[in-house]
Amino acid sequence: MNTTLVELSKFLSLVLRHKPDVLGLVLDPQGWIPVADLLALTCSPRLVRQ
């Protein structure tokens, strides 16, 4: 599997499942977050909403 995809998967799992509060994210009551808020956390210009 592509290393970048594995790293992205682990990042998303950490942020969305386990520790959204550590990064200052607030999920709505259904557990959702705006994609723009999530992308703003990354330093990678490769991760953009298309």
UniProtKB/TrEMBL annotation:
The keyword Transferase applies. GO terms for molecular function: transferase activity. Its EC number is 2.7.1.-. InterPro entries: Ptrans_KptA/Tpt1, RNA_2'-PTrans_N. It is an enzyme of class 2 (transferase). Keywords: Transferase. This is RNA 2'-phosphotransferase.
